[in-house]
Amino acid sequence: MDERTFVERRRPDWVRLGDILDRASSKKLRGLSRAELLDVGKLYRRVTSDLSYVKANSASEDLLYYLNDLAGRAHGCLYADAPKNPGRSIVTFLLRGFPILFRANARMIGISSAIFLLSGVFAATLVATNPKSYAKLVPPMFAQADSGSDDKLGPDEESGIAFPASMSSGIMVNNIYVSARAFAGGITFGVWTVRELVENGKMLGALGMRYSRKPEVALRFWSLILPHGFIELLAIAIAGGAGLILGWGLISPGNLTRWDSLRLASHEALPLMGGVVAMLVIAGSIEGFITPSPLDAWTKIIFSGVTAVGCVLYFGFVGRGNESAA
Fold first, then answer.
1. Which of 82, 125, 198, 221 is deepest in the core (most CB within 10 A)?
2. Which residues contact 80 (CB under 8 A, 6 or more apart)?
3. Do residues 240 and 299 touch, judged by C-beta distance below 8 A?
């Protein structure tokens, strides 16, 4: 590392952060202007990244001491005024921070979604052309559940089988596990994350095609899946995106050590998973109250459309104009 060049390039940010911290003084964040409030978080993240970089590249003791002191002062300033009410902090994150974080990481979430959807299309095509492949594409629990159902439409395999309501909750439980594994799989350089996305995409694609051959079967299937499905499947895509963020941090650490790169990547990925948990709670509530309700199938389908529009509005527009403060 050319320390002189590095210092010259990064010094303006350090000086700016130091000036803001000096002005904050004993008033902490309350003594800062709006522009300074918007800058302090961004500059704090940059200085912690710079500190990790110089540690990994054997910088001089003076530079290490300076950056460590600057990062420590910024941390104290930021977190001394942290909300005392954890519930308020969570609500603030969900009402603003989560959708902003989603948009900031749209590329990785988009890649995750593409892997998931393409796997589903592949499995659906396979089942459409070769119905016997269904049993190989879904977990045994699902294959056994529909083969043992009491509400078949007819004895003919090709005619389709009515979708057992009990399988809907089974799919939800499976998706919760998939979300957790897709995220944790990031530490395998993203390989396990991709595997989880592919496997779950194949399962849902196969199920969708199998139960969509007859209109009456398809209507029942989608009325049980879609009300909570839009939120749940988007949660899986976000969890997969969080896993890919971790994986990319390991694959391409840049000038950092892989450990430091992973640690920095987790600052983005972990909050995303916090939002995923909230989404799965909402999906579970819908699964518990809407799915088993006596509402007719078309009402449930319309409700699912409302949840889809809600997701678009929430992730597309909530928090816009505040991205620099996130």
1. 221
2. 28, 29
3. no
d(CA 246, CA 58): 25
DSSP 20-35: HHHHHGGGGGGGS-HH
Q: What CA–CA distance (Å, rounded) separates 206 from 300?
A: 22
Rounded to 5°, the CA angle 141-147-152 comes to 135
Token pair recorded at residue 259:
């450990």
Q: Phi and psi (nearest 5°) for 254?
A: 65, -130
The stretch 167-179 carries a mean pLDDT of 73
Distance, CA of 294 to CA of 266 (rounded, Å) = 43
Tell me what the mean pLDDT of segment 1-26 comes to: 82
Q: Are 117 and 201 in contact (CB under 8 A)?
A: yes
What pLDDT, on a 0 to 100 scale, did the predictor assign at position 171? Answer: 66
Asked if residue 299 lies in contact with residue 244, where contact means CB atoms within 8 angstroms, the answer is no
Greater confidence (170 vs 8) lies with 8
Map tokens 């009300």 to a residue.
227
| Other C-beta atoms lying within 10 Å of the C-beta of residue 203 | 21
The pLDDT assigned to 279 comes to 93
Query: Directed axis angle between helix 3-24 and helix 34-56, to 10°?
Result: 140
Q: At CA 117, angle to CA 112 and CA 123, rounded to 5? A: 130
Most confident range (mean pLDDT) of 132-136, 254-258, 280-284 is 280-284
Task: Answer whether 162's CB lies under 8 Å from 151's CB.
Answer: yes
Confidence class for position 112, pLDDT limits 50, 70, 90: very high
Average pLDDT over residues 79-96: 68
